[in-house]
Amino acid sequence: MNEPLLSVEALGVTYRSRRGPVEAVRGVSFACGREKLGIVGESGSGKSTVGRAIMGLLPRGARLRATELAFQGQDLTRCSESQMTSLRGRRIAMILQEPKFALNPVMTIGDQIAEAYRAHHRVSGTAARGHGLEMLAAVHIRNPARMWRAHAHELSGGMAQRAMIAMMLAPGPDLLIADEPTSALDVISRQSVLAILDELVAERGMGLMLISHDLGLVASFCDRVLVMEKGAVVEQLPADRLARARHPYTKALLAARPRLEVEMAARSRNR
């Protein structure tokens, strides 16, 4: 692996509850360079919490601990809120799972992209607009000027996701965390968004952390895979070797995937 952008060692996150402390993440360790790293696991495995911990977006009352949590040598556990605010977007960005809920419903897409860019770069409104239109074109929006004037409720799921990607890429981050970026999309839109991410990572030399429950998607798209169960990483392996995973949990996840031929055979028996 190339020089890591992100180094994580013994990361743990504990939430408070009425029944006492709940360990959502337990002793997670990994590094991410300028590559496509997939984090997979069933719902509740802690993969999204890992992404939010890196971004400093854990809810109040959550307790974070780590032997190391560093981005390009900067200790994230010792950053003040103002330091984290300057890091978010500018150096590390996160695409949230439901773009239509993450986008501001009363602001145009253009205003939101310009705001994200100007939060980290001292430029004029005209310059921010020009850069924002370039970002929309980079995510294959055919009519960037029209998208610039649109509101979130006017967009399809695929278009909203592209707008969110454009917004997150506008400040020029080195690491992009994508939390289930295609879960709400149809097959065609999903492939389009993945192709855009692949293209942008290659062209910009970024690192990408793709959080997903879709093992097939991660196996075909990512370079490496971390498999999480109950808050812990149980297996790390190259993506192209996922089908030959050794851990029982990873094998169970692979076996649980729906297969068209099995489903068709079952339907035939039930006729």
Features:
globular; alpha/beta; 11 helices; Rossmann fold; 271 residues; six-stranded mixed β-sheet
Detailed description of the structure:
By secondary structure, the protein is of the alpha/beta class. It has one domain: P-loop containing nucleotide triphosphate hydrolases (Rossmann fold), CATH 3.40.50. It contains 11 helices and 11 strands. The strands form 2 sheets. The chain has a 6-stranded mixed β-sheet, sandwiched between helices. Strands 1, 2, 4, 5 and 6 form a 5-stranded antiparallel β-sheet that branches. β5 (68-71) and β6 form a beta hairpin. α4 (109-118) packs across α5, α4 (109-118) packs parallel to α7 and α7 runs parallel beside α8. Mean pLDDT is 88; it is low at 261-266.
In short:
With 271 residues, the chain is of the alpha/beta class. It has helices spanning 47-55, 81-87, 99-102, 109-118, 125-138, 144-149, 157-169, 187-204, 215-221, 248-255, 260-270, and strands spanning 6-15, 22-32, 36-40, 63-65, 68-71, 74-75, 92-95, 175-179, 207-212, 224-229, 232-238.
